[in-house]
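hey can u check if this looks right to u? its 283 residues, i copy pasted from the old doc so theres a chance i mangled smth
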Amino acid sequence: MIITSNSQDPEVQILSNELKKRNFIVKYFVAKRFIANISNFEEEFKDLNPKIGLVRGIGIVPSQKIFFRLDLLSAIEKIGIKLINSRESLEIASDKFLSSLYLTSHKISTPKTIVCENNIDALKAYEDLGGDILLKPLYGSKGIGIIRINDKDFAENVLNALGQLNEVFYLQKYVEHYNKDIRILVIDNQVIAGMHRISDNWKTNIHAGAKIKPLRINEELKELAIKSAEITKTDIAGVDIMESNEGYQVIEINSIPGFTALQKVTNINISKEIIDFVLTKAN
């Protein structure tokens, strides 16, 4: 079973084909289409009858739906279906506050961060972080919704407007990284591949137009990536790292890492590595 918000997603299809080559039947669980009958929940999965579920997305949706979809993952685990990555991992890695907290508490260097609910507190945090920050959505991916703010008047306008919408403010000190960062894929505490992402501006996400280059992974990077994945309890992890003037800093952990771009700079068959690990866990 592949858990996804879109069964036609190209990477979901690549993983499906890898399974079909091995004579597995692949079925999809799409949360937005699922009706949870509390009194008969386990019966709903008899047609699927999976030993294991590969989680490839639950969608970016309003908070109540996020909580419901995470709850669905908990319910699936409760009836004995192992998930990769686990519901716990998904919660830690998907929630920027939790992942930052886990990394910092384990002495992993990460940008200074302040999280609050009040726009007045957020404005003070903006000042405390040096007047140059990244404002990020608490949940999100692909760089969507991230704003750099380094002007006080603009900060006041944005934070006041978001305050009216009852948003949570996740503010992170902007760290100079010379428009490039690093993505490393970790599977089962092993580094599989890595790449540089290079942009013509501060936003280095592939979906924002960044270019990719091969990466020679040194021992320090390898240890940092593996430790970050382990701390966040993420079996399959995309670890984002930037090289600042103060050394390597972990930006975030992705528990549903994309691999299409990374595949272009490595000879390792990433989809095969993912499916090999999933089937090992299933057995």
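The radius of gyration is 20 Å.
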